[in-house]
Amino acid sequence: MSDDYYVCTGCALLCDDISVKVEDEKLTAVHAACRKGVAFMKGCSHPMEATINGETADVESAIKEASNILKKAEHPLIFGHANSSSAAQFKAIELARRTNGYLDDTSSFCQGPLIEAIMEDKLKTCTLDDVRHKADVIIFWGSDPASAHPRHMSRYSYFPRGKERQRGWEEDRTVIAIDVRKSDTAEICGKNGLYQIPVKGDAEFMDALVSALSGKVPKTSYDFDKKRLLELASIMKKAKFGVIFAGLGMVYSLEDNEPLYRLMEKLNSVSNFHVIPMSGHYNMVGFNKNLFGETGYINRVKFEGEEIKHGPEYSVVEALRKKDIDAALVIGADPYSSLPRSIVRHLEDIPLIVIDPCQTLTSTKADVTIPCGLVGVESGGTAVRMDGVEVELKQIVESDRLSDEDVMTKILEGL
Ligand code: SF4
After folding, report:
1. Which of 187, 221, 263, 392 has the smallest CB count inside 10 Å?
2. Residue 14 alpha carbon to ligand 1 centre in Å
């Protein structure tokens, strides 16, 4: 195995302790990654090929065709980015600027509201390293790392010993799941660790917790054991360093962030609590951070000359629903797999370009497909972990595929 350690880009944990075996410029063994990470790093079962209108093409011709499509478009959509290097994301921002395009990413329909609140300093956050070293109360709210981020609990949140948590998980940490179901993570939290709430019951449960933390009798319209709710409030109040890992279960349940703001404000008046959104794709937070730095917004923007428009009407979902776009470039995402058919249908009526290391459902519908190297294996770069920490990704094998950044640069040159 290698003496160097590499980073797995299988999810937004970006585990940086991976050793590998390389034979004939192929990854033949991956050590320390979870099964999901090993499968991801070993590459695609169906690598992407360069095509134009379904016919095999050389990469340069496919790139030239992509530039021509974008040059002719008046309102293209540049979408994806969650599985792209930060350098490619900056090129995508430039591309959207130069083409008066819509620019959006997958956070637009998942963790966007929480990531935005953190970037605007409306929610207190911390790093995963802080969690490992300090956290004594860990709450998985609508999140299931045992399934989605397999090494989360062993590397950071529950099992490791930390500088201020030397006695280990058995004595030093309390772990709780608040969820609508008994997830794999809830199983690990033990008999009394699951607080099961009804679907869409999160906002009420947050307000009941605020009441309990204020010394009042908590009330919910659904039948929830008040004694258990008071016990939970007491655990949270006594925390020296608490963290809520917010999953999509919570995000999709809340109509806005207000109940969470109320809970966090109360918690931080009596205790010390932080929120980390459980982002899935390895560099979604990177895109949000990079776009925020360039425009002041994390997603859902439309460029018009010098003007930057922002709002729900500029989201990928609304742009597709209203048929406002006349071409689309998808990089590092698969909207046909993640959005309803009724939304993505418009992509069939306009020229569609897909850039990806692997074939996807979306690439089967594309007019132009362009392969790129798998970031973190065939090309290097940087990405941003779910907690906002920037991580360097080293290239592991030599590849004749262009990096995602190089593909974007060439498309820009062809405009
Ligand atoms: S937890 Fe995520 S980053 Fe870590 S090895 Fe597994 S897939 Fe890769």
Report:
1. 221
2. 6
Q: How far is the CA of 221 from the centre of ligand 1 (A)?
A: 39
Where helices occur in 173-313 by DSSP H, the ranges are 184-189, 202-213, 226-238, 248-253, 258-270, 284-295
**Ligand 1 atom closest to residue 11's alpha carbon, by position in its atom list:** 2
Q: Ligand 1, atom 2: nearest CA belongs to which residue?
A: 11
Ligand 1 centroid from CA 15, angstroms: 6
What is the distance between the alpha carbons of residues 12 and 118, in angstroms, rounded to a whole number?
Answer: 17
Ligand 1 centroid to residue 33 C-alpha, Å: 6
Atom 5, ligand 1: residue with shortest CA distance: 33
Task: Please write the tens of the pLDDT for every residue from 45-90.
Answer: 899 999 999 999 999 999 999 999 999 999 999 999 999 999 999 9
What tens digit of pLDDT does each residue of 305-315 get? 999 999 999 99
- Quick one: which H or E segment has residue 77? strand 76-80
Specify the ligand 1 atom closest to the Cα of 7: 3
**pLDDT per position as a tens digit, 275-327:** 999 999 999 999 999 999 999 999 999 999 999 999 999 999 999 999 999 99
pLDDT at residue 169 in the model: 87
The single-letter DSSP state of residue 29 is E
Q: Closest ligand 1 atom to the C-alpha of 14?
A: 3
Residue 158, Ramachandran bin (φ over 0: left; ψ between -120 and 50: alpha; else beta) = alpha
- Rounded Cα–Cα distance for residues 283 and 318 (Å): 23
Q: Which domains are assigned to the chain?
A: 45-109+282-374+401-414 (3.40.50.740), 111-277 (3.40.228.10)
pLDDT of residue 1: 77
